[in-house]
Design a protein that fits this description.
By secondary structure, this protein is mostly helical. It has helices spanning about 25-30, 40-55, 65-85; strands at about 5-10, 60.
Length: about 100
């Protein structure tokens, strides 16, 4: 069985910010409350992914999570789908008389 490493990078989305929430992370703490540039950050992420791919690494890029799509799923899809999964399973026991 052949094994190989794949590097996945997630692109930042439009809600990217520097909140400094990563306690103990020097970069996070030192950039807390700084002005962020999501577009520039996404371009930097793509440049890094391309650089790794150019070095011959297997590279994957994950699109940013869409907050709108997530909210639509929570508000519309899950409530519509859940009743089907919450129903009691059918009783398939053979009753002998």
């Amino acid at each position: 069985m052949k094994h190989f490493e794949v590097n996945f990078d997630g692109l930042v989305g439009p809600t990217h910010n520097y909140a400094g929430l990563s306690f103990g992370n020097v970069a996070s703490q030192s950039n807390a409350n700084a002005v962020s540039s999501p577009r520039q950050a996404a371009k930097q992420g793509l440049a890094k992914a391309k650089a790794l791919a150019d070095m011959g690494m297997t590279q994957g890029v994950l699109a940013p999570r869409s907050v709108l799509i997530f909210r639509l799923c929570v508000v519309w899809v899950l409530p519509a789908a859940m009743p089907r999964y919450l129903k009691a399973p059918p009783n398939n026991q053979n009753k002998s008389s």
